[in-house]
Amino acid sequence: MKDIIQIKNLTKDYGSGKGIFDINLEVKQGEVFGFLGPNGAGKTTTIRNLMGFIRPSSGECKVMGMDCYRDAENIQKNLGYLAGEITFLDDLNGEQMLEFIASMKGQKDKSRMLELMNRFELDPKGKIKKMSKGMKQKIGIICAFMDDPDVIILDEPTSGLDPLMQNRFIDLILEEKKRGKTIFMSSHIFEEIERTCDRTAIIKNGKIVDVEDMKSLQQKKQKSYIITFSDEKKAIDFTKSRNDVIEQNSQKVIVAVRGEVNEFLNELTQYYIKDLDVRTQSLEEIFLHFYGGEN
């Protein structure tokens, strides 16, 4: 599959260590690509370059083979975008705002817009200036998807949404993925990245520190088994037989197991076990080591 988004040696240096530095990424056609990092890491600066809103200090980025800065107008004809900080015309109501955006896009068929309004339970009658953050976010999502673009760029798309609407948004992303849409989505919410993305780049202090395939990342998840033996002696005996024990305290033993668990479970059958509990490492815990320590 061809690369729909290409970022090569992209730098936007604001001075004092602020900005993005030597970013290299590519997003394939039909891929949902996550862009994960804490606030201030450089996610929005990268996206503003992709949208052609700012000129890079060096390097380049392309969408659908076109230069993001020089060809921004042509790119945006077939691109959906949701900004991290949405700015609307406050004197309009929600319906007027959606109609205004549709007219700017030259969109005559409103069926997709109406379907999305129904999906996200948007009442568009109220004035935008009186709307909550969540209501404005719904309008932003509808604007990004309503003209059925082939490429969608989303900056913190579920900010302000309640859990029900977050789930509906995730369902929308998965549907668009099945339809072959290319989606670039920045977030600091691990669950939505885990549930939707094929690959994810991790950015820290303006630099890419890793790009992970989500399927392989799932396999790296560590499971901790908390075993309660019948007595302390049995717990100690078991501990001596393994090199993956995290902790042993009286009758309880905590074991970290990666990958196949059959051998581990077979070994447990040799003991009388009073209780067994399992805790799976979260995606957030896997990524935390990228955010701590030395730069």
UniProtKB/TrEMBL annotation:
The entry's keywords: ATP-binding, Nucleotide-binding, Transport
Keyword Transport on entry: yes
InterPro entries (alphabetical): AAA+_ATPase (IPR003593), ABC_transporter-like_ATP-bd (IPR003439), ABC_transporter-like_CS (IPR017871), ABC_transporter_ATP-binding (IPR050763), P-loop_NTPase (IPR027417)
Gene3D superfamilies: P-loop containing nucleotide triphosphate hydrolases
One Pfam match: ABC_tran
One term of GO molecular function: ATP hydrolysis activity
Protein name per the record: ABC-2 type transport system ATP-binding protein
Organism: Asaccharospora irregularis DSM 2635
